Automatic annotation (TrEMBL), chains A, B:
<dbReference type="InterPro" id="IPR014729">
    <property type="entry name" value="Rossmann-like_a/b/a_fold"/>
</dbReference>
<dbReference type="Pfam" id="PF00579">
    <property type="entry name" value="tRNA-synt_1b"/>
</dbReference>
<comment type="similarity">
    <text>Belongs to the class-I aminoacyl-tRNA synthetase family.</text>
</comment>
<dbReference type="GO" id="GO:0005524">
    <property type="term" value="F:ATP binding"/>
</dbReference>
<dbReference type="GO" id="GO:0006436">
    <property type="term" value="P:tryptophanyl-tRNA aminoacylation"/>
</dbReference>
<keyword id="KW-0648">Protein biosynthesis</keyword>
<keyword id="KW-0030">Aminoacyl-tRNA synthetase</keyword>
<dbReference type="GO" id="GO:0004830">
    <property type="term" value="F:tryptophan-tRNA ligase activity"/>
</dbReference>
<keyword id="KW-0436">Ligase</keyword>
<dbReference type="GO" id="GO:0005737">
    <property type="term" value="C:cytoplasm"/>
</dbReference>
<protein>
    <recommendedName>
        <fullName>Tryptophan--tRNA ligase</fullName>
        <ecNumber>6.1.1.2</ecNumber>
    </recommendedName>
</protein>
<keyword id="KW-0067">ATP-binding</keyword>
<dbReference type="InterPro" id="IPR002306">
    <property type="entry name" value="Trp-tRNA-ligase"/>
</dbReference>
<dbReference type="InterPro" id="IPR002305">
    <property type="entry name" value="aa-tRNA-synth_Ic"/>
</dbReference>
<keyword id="KW-0547">Nucleotide-binding</keyword>
Length: 382, 382
């Protein structure tokens, strides 16, 4: 297993996706050191997901900071399409970044739950099938600690009364050929899914401030469309804080997927399942203990190290120590995995306690917190 | 001007559209004498629009009558997409038939006002442009005398909260290729218009009874799609009562169109405008009075005679007398037109008084009549 082609700084471990090339292809900007320094100053710190380069690119982020400094403010927008499986730890990464941004800048946050999308995308067979997961997803998100008076979590099917009119204004500006090009719709696509992008764009119009969307770079095309339309509706173009793709457990090129359980740690996995999945995870380890002691591991391609760096080692110094301990053959995979299992299970136990606690106040996010109340009285005025 | 190719019974005057061929092409059934006789018996009469063959074809109408006789009942559904012009007399023809059916059978009637459609179809430039006409359209429709406790008139943009979920269920069953084939969508079509047919189908699911839609035969393809989908949602296929196309004033092949004022009598045309338009209307008259006295007119192609037969002569015997008076050269166009002007202006004066009266109770149809209240609490359960 060669080291070539992999970045060697531990907080920028990566697989084969050439993110430099993506920056060029998508025409986005690199999250530069000076910009990170500026965030650091304004936010009073930098979240590990930012300082370790997982968020690596952006659109208009410096304008967002200008707006913040000038007192015009900005707002955050993200979402989660419920499916017929629980959320996994890769799903919560952008929410964790969003929550950090909310706390650091004290801004409103809108979380769309498109409860119809997977059905329209023919990924589930009925709306009923998804229903049990919708509430669970909302609880999982709310449990991450969003501000209950500055966060509005809404289901499309419930909030459509407020969304439809602005969606019509948006939809008028998206013709079929554009939608096909951006979203890859084909002849088998349902007409509901073809309309759906308009609903995904509506929350970017909720305030007459700049929206900031923390998301994977693969989501950029959706919001590039918003950037074409927003000025025609007298609204701001979305700014984006773009991340790399979180790895699944089967390798740097895998994704966590609920339909392939070995790739993902679900938020409701019991401890022994977490253990089994991590013990079977793809690592940068050698074929034998002897080889590993002699040659060292390859943390750059190791999914276990990847997840330490994303969520399970907050201390940069300790992460670097782990990196070099692996690299020099001092740390073997078994020990490193066992520790990750412990940390994930600790995280999940805490998280699921928070989920229970949040149940009592989830209606604040959806209906009766300060922002939620405002939004149930909101009307779009271009 | 030849008489060939025109039907000679006065109550079936028609232009060049071959409706027999359309019956075959669309695969619908002719509105036969025995079926008309059955309606006559059950309804205690036949509306001129039915007995004169303007409504000439159907789908499943005998099943509707079976349902009625068996006590299962049925319901009526129609609609009107507001534009940036007032309604004209051709627009109200299907509503007049619908109202007659409601009164004759005592059934619930749903009237959709798709206040977003013309905007999504790029026929108007803003939603604001349409707004003043929406209320006027609703008043014009309500003024025709629908039962205020059995009629629900709803605007898409207001009622979308109830419609979206069933629309999603419908949309899942309509893929892009079908929508393109049925509605002729192309690359320039907005994604909002592509979704719209799902919203047009939703009212056919409002009751677990058979829906009957009185409409022009050109609307049949829309509801044929409904007939494919309804069984999958455990609902009835729509029945249809299909009419010919009402003529514009410029000839049997013209349509009334607000954008060509000479073709249409608008519901708010002042008497002198009505007079001017009718005086300029295309008739079956001859070049000179002498010729007309000698050869007689051709009522079969006469737009003036057409409108007598549709709305302005209820008495079949008098209509037939008019037919023969024309045919034999006894009645000249000037006199015939002057009489129609009088009748139209009388109708419009009465109608616009009813519009004023209905203003006080329009909220019954939309919000607080018996059916309206039920519908604001409705939820679709397949």
């Amino acid at each position: 297993m060669s080291q070539e082609g992999y970045n060697v700084t531990p907080w920028e471990a990566r697989g084969k996706i050439d993110y430099d090339k993506l920056i060029q292809e998508f025409g986005v900007e690199r999250l530069s050191e000076p910009l990170l320094a500026r965030i650091n100053t304004l936010a009073g710190g930098l979240h590990p997901l930012l300082r370790r380069g997982f968020f690596f690119a952006h659109r208009d982020l410096s304008l967002v900071l200008d707006d913040y400094e000038a007192g015009r403010g900005f707002f955050l927008y993200t979402g989660r399409a419920p499916s017929k499986a629980p959320m996994h730890i890769a799903h919560i990464v952008p929410f964790i970044a969003t929550r950090w941004l909310q706390h650091s800048f004290g801004v409103n946050t809108y979380i769309e739950i498109p409860d119809e999308e997977k059905f329209l995308a023919k990924k589930v067979d009925s709306l009923e099938e998804v229903e049990p997961y919708i509430r669970q997803d909302i609880l999982n998100i709310a449990a991450l600690g969003f501000d209950e008076n500055k966060t509005f979590i809404f289901r499309d099917s419930e909030y459509i009364g407020k969304m439809y009119r602005p969606a019509v204004l948006v939809a008028r500006h998206i013709n079929l050929s554009t939608a096909r090009a951006v979203f890859g719709f084909d002849n088998e696509t349902s007409i509901g899914l073809i309309f759906y992008p308009a609903l995904q764009i509506v929350p970017t119009l909720f305030e007459n401030r700049r929206p900031l969307i923390p998301c994977g770079i693969d989501q950029d095309p959706y919001f590039r469309l918003q950037r074409d339309i927003a000025p025609r509706l007298n609204r701001y173009k979305t700014a984006e804080l773009l991340s790399k793709l979180a790895w699944g457990l089967t390798g740097p090129e895998s994704k966590m997927s609920a339909s392939e359980p070995e790739t993902a740690i679900m938020l409701n996995d019991p401890p022994e399942v977490v253990k089994k999945k991590i013990m079977n995870a793809f690592t940068g380890g050698r074929a034998t203990v002897e080889e590993q002691r002699k040659l060292g591991g390859v943390p750059e391609v190791c999914t276990v190290f990847h997840w330490y760096s994303l969520l399970f080692e907050e201390d940069d110094k300790k992460l670097e120590e782990r990196y070099w301990a692996c690299k020099t053959g001092k740390l073997l995979c078994g020990e490193c995995k066992a520790e990750l299992v412990k940390r994930i299970n600790h995280f999940l136990a805490l998280h699921n306690e928070k989920v229970k606690d949040v149940e009592k106040k989830v209606s604040k996010y959806m209906y009766d917190g300060k922002l939620a109340q405002e939004m149930w009285n909101w009307e779009f005025k271009p």
